[in-house]
Amino acid sequence: MKKGISRLSLVTGLMIFSNFMYGQGSSNSGNFYTTSLIVVLAVVVIAVLLQLTDNLLMVEAQKSGADKTNRNFSIFPTLSELFAKRLPARVAGERVVRLDKGHDILIEGAATEQINEKVKANTFAVQPPNYFGIKPIPKVVVAVGDSVKAGDELFFDKQYPDVKYVAPVSGEVIAINRKEKRAIKEIVILADKKQSSRALPKINLDEVSREDLVAFMSEYGAFSMIRQRPYNVVVDPAEVPVNIFVSTFDTAPLAPNLNFVVEGNEDAFAAGLKALGKMTSGQVHLGLDGKSEQDPSAAFTAAEGVVKTYFHGAHPAGNVGIQIHHTAPINSNETVWTLDVQAVITIGKMVTEGVFDASRVVVIGGNVNQPTYARTYAGANVGELLKDNIKTEQPRIISGDVLSGEQKQDSEFLNIFDDQISVIEEGDYYEMFGWLLPLSPRPSISNTFPNFLFKNHEFEVDTNTHGEYRAFVVTGQYEKVLPMDIYPQHLLKSILVNDYERMEGLGLLEVVEEDMALCEFVCTSKQPVQKILREGLETLREQ
């Protein structure tokens, strides 16, 4: 702005000089220069006033912390706002957050919105390692051979003995498997053909107190479906979250369409939201898809007692961590809770129907013969869900999406928070000069490959990293795909050197692994970004 004012002053000075030189020539030329001088001075005054107003707005935004939401508080539109794609008509008048960073990865094998009732699982498991923050050896209250109902207690953490972890199905406990140092790996249940649930007391949400609702959710397993941030750990019932966040869409590769998943459970979803509203001192925030051509389900758009925000952008726009960052960022010494749509439905059925229903709609996609949706329960056996459906001879089975999921063997189980199984081929081969001669199409943000010319092309992918581990150099790639106001590469390096103050100051408490999974995908240095991030979170939490 100072440079602009200096230039205007120079122009004004030249015009005054010109007016003085040519003022004696004719009255017409003198009037012309006088008028021009007045116009220029008026423009300068208006420009200064506008700039001062803009600066004051930015100062107030910084004081209130609103600038951290990455929204434009300037009175001047940015180039991205001027040339951005037109928003869908349905979001007119709604609160919308535009995200200009991110990247969508299109993979072959997306499922059509139809449930294959033939896909079934017979064994299910609750896996303590799925819950960050829990002790490696919780107190198990069942033994092999015991019969349990859905909702019966299986174990509890000695740190929070009031929070129960319960069975997702009724059946017989057939195994309690352990791993290194006798830590509990999983408790396996052979499901009954006809499911039964533990009878729960019904809750009148209009009259129940928060204390009674906390006791109910602790005793009957609801808190096992909720995660607490920062750190993405199990919930501490003694802490009151300042906000609760639920994302109603998923932008990860091959992710399920949650509009389809919620069909038939609209009332339970509404009841779950109402119950959650009593648990927080702030608001329940609902993140909706503002980019897709498909309208969000009425269960989401008509939800009452919540703050609805539309997000328009590429992956990871659907991640709840990104939505927290742009709506109500976590301040120091605050906690928020997060959970997914199907967990909200389970809580809704607990309070209104008096049953623990951990049924889940799971999408199976990727390198399979028939990509499909399946109706099952939390913690299902992945091999049974994939029976006779894997196309490749060397499959990588992933619980979750290909960016942030966990590799599984066919004898293992779906992680408790996952609602998709992804299958891709193992990339155990070398490609000569692959970086120099791009012979086969692959998902990439690099313009070396002509991907930018084919926006809707779906790729057949494998696990090959197309490069080896190398020096951790600054490339600016992370910043291109992470729509958060942090410095991701500096953050990771502060974790590697155990600089506690710096890692916290750089925003470690705002992120979890899935938020930076795309950074690992684009990383030229092939760094294990998510592994480093989890180590930093655990280190800082211990401190």
Q: How would you explain this protein's 3D organization?
A:
This protein is of the alpha/beta class and 543 residues long. Among the domains are: 68 residues; 79 residues, no CATH class. The protein is built from 15 helices and 19 strands. The strands form four sheets. It has a seven-stranded mixed β-sheet with strand order 1-13-12-11-14-9-10. Helix 6 packs across helix 9. The chain is globular, with a radius of gyration of 28 Å. The N terminus is likely disordered.
Helical percentage? 25-40%
Distance between the termini: 45 Å
- Order of strands, widest sheet: 1-13-12-11-14-9-10
Please, what is the average pLDDT? 89
What's the story with the biggest beta sheet? 7 strands, mixed
Approximate strand percentage:
15-25%
Overall geometric form: globular
Number of strands: 19
Low-confidence stretches: 1-5
Q: How is this structure best summarized?
A:
The chain is α/β, with parallel strands linked by helices and 543 residues long.
Features:
543 residues, alpha/beta, five-stranded mixed sheet
SSE blueprint:
Layout: H1 2-22, H2 27-64, H3 79-82, E1 96-98, E2 123-126, E3 139-140, E4 147-148, E5 153-156, E6 164-166, E7 171-178, E8 184-191, H4 210-219, E9 227-229, E10 233-234, E11 243-247, H5 258-261, H6 266-277, E12 283-289, H7 298-301, E13 307-312, H8 320-327, E14 336-339, H9 341-353, E15 359-366, E16 372-377, H10 382-385, E17 395-399, E18 406-408, E19 420-425, H11 477-481, H12 488-496, H13 500-505, H14 517-522, H15 529-542
Parallel strand pairs: 1-13, 11-12, 11-14, 12-13, 15-19
Antiparallel strand pairs: 2-8, 3-5, 4-7, 5-6, 7-8, 9-10, 9-14, 15-16, 17-18, 17-19
Helix pairs in contact: 1-2, 6-9
